[in-house]
Design a protein that fits this description.
Shape: globular
CATH class of the largest domain: Alpha Beta
Number of strands: 10
Structural class: alpha/beta
CATH topology of the largest domain: Rossmann fold
Number of helices: 14
Function: Required for morphogenesis under gluconeogenic growth conditions.
Distance between the termini: 16 Å
Largest sheet: 7 strands, parallel
Strand content: 15-25%
Number of domains: 2
Keywords: Cytoplasm
CATH superfamily of the largest domain: CofD-like domains
CATH architecture of the largest domain: 3-Layer(aba) Sandwich
Main location: cytoplasm
Protein name: Putative gluconeogenesis factor
Radius of gyration: 19 Å
GO molecular function, one term: LPPG:FO 2-phospho-L-lactate transferase activity
């Protein structure tokens, strides 16, 4: 791989702010923590399924699941950190009211109830874990994703339907065209705006495109901060289309991103060679976004569609001049 490397004008590791949710952000953080210890994760707060959805409905809280996963990805490398990360991710079994809840979700919720501040609670969990970085929610309020979907009804293939809720949008059988957030113009966490303005690198993706990547660009104040920051912006594409973008090419993922954030410009777009191999439009789309396209072998060797954190870390280190 030969890429345009940025020479950092300071003798320290770069500060990096990574955006996403769920397994995609977990993969990104697992790689980035090998590159720098100046790391902040900014997490979507629209999950309404599983344990998070149940807690959100009962307590009116931010959904803790994706925040929990980000904390687990940043846990310390010692026995204490690894043990606590495992505890956070474990779930209650049986048929009782706690069945299916992640232990970490209940811990985070308990701290939120105690302190009345989501960020203070997350900071306390991070300290407990010896986390290599900080985890922040992208907004102050729980959000709802609403998608315009075509083709849900096979008898009316051109009819546009509205699908509400992250869990439903992620598994919809129709073709998602656009998404928006409810409430409209949600407030961004002020800590997030501050860190985006001061960071050296912004990293978007990988992850579910409509429900984990794009939502950050639909919070107006946050989108403006990402667009205007002095930081270099890096986008990591998925290894293959997720459920909600099934059948979409790599370049179509970029087209969707540009449709939702037309002012966004990027410095790098990182894509797996296999996903990008037959996409003749990808390079041109990257150029239209101001980005250099970086192709590499990024997949795990076990055949699963997951990024190898070591391979991804190597790409990040090269691009960030570490």
């Amino acid at each position: 791989m030969s890429v345009r490397r940025f020479d950092l004008p300071f003798e320290r590791l770069p500060s990096v702010t990574a955006f996403g949710g769920g397994h995609g952000l977990f993969a990104s953080l697992s790689a980035l923590r090998r590159v720098t210890d100046r790391l902040t994760a900014v997490v979507t707060v629209a999950d309404d399924g599983g344990s998070s959805g149940r807690l959100r409905e009962e307590f009116g809280c931010l959904p803790p699941g994706d925040l929990r996963m980000a904390l687990a990805a940043l846990c310390g490398d010692d026995h204490w950190g690894r043990t606590w990360a495992d505890v956070l991710q474990s779930r209650f079994t049986g048929d009782g009211p706690l069945a299916g809840h992640a232990v970490g979700n209940l811990l985070i919720l308990g701290l939120w109830e105690k302190f009345g501040d989501p960020v203070a609670g997350l900071d306390m969990v991070a300290e407990l874990l010896g986390a290599k970085g900080r985890v922040l929610p992208m907004s102050s309020v729980p959000l709802q994703i609403v998608a315009e979907v075509i083709g849900i009804d096979p008898l009316s293939p051109d009819e546009v339907s509205l699908v509400s809720g992250q869990a439903r949008v992620a598994k919809t059988e129709g073709e998602v065209h656009t998404v928006r957030l409810e409430p409209e113009n949600p407030p961004a966490r002020p800590e997030v705006i501050e860190v985006v303005r001061d960071t050296d690198f912004v990293v978007l993706g990988p992850g579910s495109w409509f429900t984990s990547v794009i939502p950050h660009l639909l919070v107006p104040e946050l989108a403006e901060a990402i667009i205007e920051t002095r930081a270099r912006r890096l986008l990591t594409l998925n290894l293959m289309p997720a459920d909600e973008t099934d059948g979409y090419s790599a370049s179509q993922h970029l087209e969707i991103l540009a449709d939702h954030a037309p002012r966004l410009r990027l410095d790098y777009i990182v894509a797996d060679e296999t996903f990008a191999r037959d996409d003749k439009h990808l390079a041109n789309y990257a150029v239209s976004l101001g980005a250099e396209l970086v192709l590499a072998d990024l997949a795990m060797r076990d055949g699963t569609p997951r990024h190898d954190p070591l391979r991804l870390a190597s790409i990040f280190a090269e691009l960030m001049g570490v």
